[in-house]
Predict the 3D structure of the following.
Amino acid sequence: MDLTRIDVAAPSRPYPVLLGEDLASRLKVHLDEIRFPDRRILVSSPRVWRLHGARVSSGFEALALIVVPDGERSKHLRTVSRIYDGLIAAGADRGSGVVAVGGGVVGDMAGFAAATYLRGMEVAHVPTTLLAQVDSAIGGKTGVNLREGKNLVGAFHQPSAVLMDPSFLRTLDRREFRAGLYEVLKYAIACSAPLFDRLDGDFDSIARRLAPALLPVIEECCRIKARIVTEDERDQGVRRVLNFGHTAGHAFEAVTRYRRFRHGEAVAYGMLVAAELGHRRRRFDTGARDAFARLLWRFGGLPPIRDLRTSELMEVITRDKKIVDGRLHFVLP
Ligand code: NAD
């Protein structure tokens, strides 16, 4: 089996990202190799477990399986509380490890539970959506939403490993897959012109999820994220470029109560806002802005936004975590 290893040299905890087809059925071997705690608790969601549980659990001995709902509207403290209940029932202690199998929502919540239960236990991420593979599983940001806004409660807690199997992505519905592609486009605009060209040039094969086209894209995003997290673990410098599209994006999600958009779709609108701001400030020329927008719209349609009120969006934006000393920091291309 071809296995790619990317190292994240985060100061608080270095760890490997392993990427390989059918890695899902060999989790135990890889976790043993990195000496992940033997007492393992799986956390997943009903849909992911129904589709992939048999493969993941073959040869995997877990103390318990905790199944919690996913989707943005489940990402709150009550769901995390259910994970704590499951950890208590399983007799988990500080020497146990959480293995999160799911999309970004399961990863963020299981990661947060691992960061806080008994003041911290180890976590390994097994991301199953494109968004989670290219972005959320790497970097140690964990947390949940409050009614007042996204990810307002959380902790930095680096995983012990990230184990990625692109074959998970075959069962993703088209909309979820596309939502992940918007995050890929974020890396392309914020960090890598070659990635932009690859996305543009191989668009059809990537959209059809053909492994030879898709794998290098996932790998490139992981390498970028690993490099950035190594340099700036806690979001105080260069890591903030990855917030490109997120300031307005989070506001789109919040004013629609997390019902209308997939996270990546909201980020897509946020990137269009940032691109326009960048253009007006003469930092993003007309040709670049238009090429970016053309590629973004090639992905397919986005949910409508005509009915949203600018004043409500602005109110959320001014509560953003990216406000430092009263000034809103906006990432421009
Ligand atoms: P999600 O976890 O809710 O998953 C989306 C849907 O896909 C769910 O219905 C889920 O059941 C389904 N699903 C998951 N894997 C599947 C598979 N293999 N086949 C079929 N269906 C599958 O959402 P997401 O888009 O993965 O993640 C979004 C979240 O990630 C947001 O809450 C966002 O804030 C967070 N995020 C975190 C970071 C970070 O650094 N921690 C970065 C980016 C985004």
